[in-house]
Structure formats: C-alpha cells, structure tokens
C-alpha cells in the first residue's frame, strides 16, 4: 500500500512539474521547450493565434502568470500568451547587437577567440559573472560579454 501511494505521488509530481516549476515571482527568464509554440492574444485556446514560434530554446521573459498560461515577451519586445507547459526554466540566450561577437576561451578579452557568432544565434546560457557569461551552441562552448546576450542578467 505504501509503495502504491509513493508511486502515485511520484507520478503526480512528474506530471505537474513543468507548469508548477514555473509558478514563481515575475518577471523571470524561461526558454521555449517545444519545436512549435503558439502565442495567443489572450490566456486561453479560445483566443486567436498572433504568432507561431519555431525556435526551440529561444529565451523569453515571463511577465505575468495566469493558471496554465504565461504572458511572455520575446527578444523583439513582442508580448503574448503561451501555454506554460511548453516553456522550460532551462536558461537560453540569443546573441544581440551589431556585427559578430567573439566567443572567448576564458572570460577575458585578451584570451583566445575560439570562434565568432552572429546576432540571432540561440544557445544555452551557463553561469554569468563579472559581465561575462558561459554560452554554448551545440557542443561549442566559450565566454561572451553579457551585454551581447538577451536572456542573461536580471529579467
């Protein structure tokens, strides 16, 4: 009996964790979990679709929480409602600014430039310290100045 109750509790936690993991104080950063995500003009499937994202990992800023829905802002400043379960709290970032950005071996402009990356590239955000962030695209890793990444820092 105890084993069945424990299994039931674990199953409930696993099913509810994506949405409940995002019930926190706003604003906060999240990333798109799905390959396709509909942004709606209101917090329900009854509202029309305003935009369709096809960019898994794209960082978004969650600015309002309503039941199973999140009002988000994307890197371009567009706001709309998305279903919470299609977001993840895994941090992503997108390269912003003019021209290419260098990806350094260490968090120091005098270190080796490993490669260059263009604005619009989405990657996984690691730790940020002293205005430098760890940034990974596929299996390439390095350090980027924080001001070149939307999704880093305070939301």
From TrEMBL:
It comes from the Bacteria. Keywords: Signal. Residues 27-90 form the SH3b domain. Residues 1-21 form the signal peptide. This is SH3b domain-containing protein. It comes from Qipengyuania gaetbuli. The lineage of its organism: Bacteria, Pseudomonadati, Pseudomonadota, Alphaproteobacteria, Sphingomonadales.
